[in-house]
Design brief:
This protein has a five-stranded antiparallel beta sheet with strand order 1-18-16-15-14. A five-stranded mixed beta sheet has the order 4-5-6-7-11, with no helix packed on it. By secondary structure, it is mainly beta. Helix content is 7%, strand content 45%. Strand 15 and strand 16 form a beta hairpin. The chain contains four helices and 26 strands.
């Protein structure tokens, strides 16, 4: 399901609100959080790491597995490597209220539990923070509302990051006290934050709409975020940050929608693509993209068109990307939602992965 593209940056609505002056800077200033961290620069403090070879070896966890709510489409997923579970968020087609279903499965896609969350987000990215003492913490965007309700053309979106404990059978609202809210106090932040977690290096990656360049990425130590939140004050600045290239910079078209982001070491990985008009139509292209967090501007490390599942998944649409800390080493996992015609249509989930690392 479409969230936004990066053709020169944001959607038409986001591009309009981006021109409104002072939103991100005013929030940062009010917090005492304006720093000398220039929005157009990049910090290069991330140590060197291997990266996934996007065209390298891999496999799949499962194909066309149903999730808890069969009429809602998977939007993203993440792994609890401590307990060997996968968590997903699903949204209702056409919904504008920020309500999501979460599904918990084993590594083969068998449903183990579910949770309802209300007023959070579209679900286009999520993260899991495992807890050795029980169920994990879930990270998603939150505060689903219109930023400018006086504008009839403004559309709702999320404006901060949330963290809460997953509970089988739970029913959680954004306003509940069990939800920890993280406002974004970054001097170049405008709106639309999305989280990802690196399970090997204990870091949080934030994708967001910037004040100077349309989309940006910033990398933080997870303990720092838990202690201080998302800030760019010294002496605890972002580990790294950079511009997120537009679709045209990457070499993609306007219909190649952003479908997820994750991080491993010094590299961020993104998933792009759309879906065919009809479930019987051939699959449309999907792409994996690698960005070096130590680089600047519109540079791209690698782009790879993936044909994973393109003849097996009706209505194939890329949905979510995450790093799995497996017993045999890191895996770059990327998902697809498949759609089966009916009244109403039903959706299934598929997750593929890459295992080959290169220097």
């Amino acid at each position: 399901m479409r969230e936004e593209t990066q053709t020169g940056g944001a959607s038409a609505v986001s591009r309009r609100t981006l021109l409104r002056t002072g939103t991100g800077l005013a929030v940062a200033a009010a917090s005492g959080g304006l720093s000398m961290f220039a929005a157009g620069s990049a910090s290069a403090d991330v140590g060197p790491s291997q990266r996934f070879k996007l065209g390298g070896d891999g496999g799949n966890f499962f194909l066309n597995a149903p999730l808890h709510q069969p009429y809602w489409a998977m939007q993203s997923f993440a792994f609890d490597h401590v307990n060997e579970h996968i968590y997903y968020v699903q949204s209702k087609v056409g919904s504008t209220n920020g309500d999501l279903w979460m599904t918990r499965t084993d590594m083969a896609g068998n449903i183990l539990g579910a949770m309802a969350i209300h007023g959070f987000d579209h679900g286009s990215n999520m993260a899991i923070e495992p807890d050795t003492f029980g169920s994990p913490y879930v990270w998603v965007a939150g505060d689903w509302r219109k930023l400018h309700p006086e504008d009839p053309d403004d559309k709702p979106n999320s404006h901060n990051i949330c963290r809460f404990k997953y509970i089988d059978g739970g029913d959680l609202s954004y306003a509940d006290s069990a939800v920890r809210k993280f406002p974004i106090y970054l001097s170049d932040f405008h709106d639309c934050p999305r989280p990802a977690i690196d399970p090997y290096h204990n870091r949080v990656l934030l994708r967001y709409m910037g004040t100077n360049t349309p989309w940006r990425l910033a990398l933080f130590d997870l303990p720092t975020v838990l202690n201080r939140g998302f800030i760019d004050d010294t002496p605890l600045p972002r580990l790294a940050e950079r511009e997120l290239p537009s679709n045209s910079d990457i070499g993609l078209g306007p219909n190649d929608d952003f479908q997820g982001v994750t991080v491993y070491g010094q590299y961020a990985y993104l998933l792009y693509g759309g879906h065919p008009a009809n479930t019987t139509d051939p699959a449309v292209p999907s792409y994996l993209v690698t960005l070096d967090m130590n680089n600047t501007g519109t540079s791209v490390k690698e782009i790879f068109q993936t044909h994973a599942g393109d003849t097996l998944l009706p209505g194939r649409e890329p949905q979510g990307i995450a790093v799995y800390r497996s017993p045999t080493g890191p895996r770059l996992a990327f998902g697809f939602s498949s759609k089966f015609a009916g009244d109403p249509a039903q959706f299934r989930s598929t997750i593929f992965y890459k295992t080959e690392l290169i220097d």
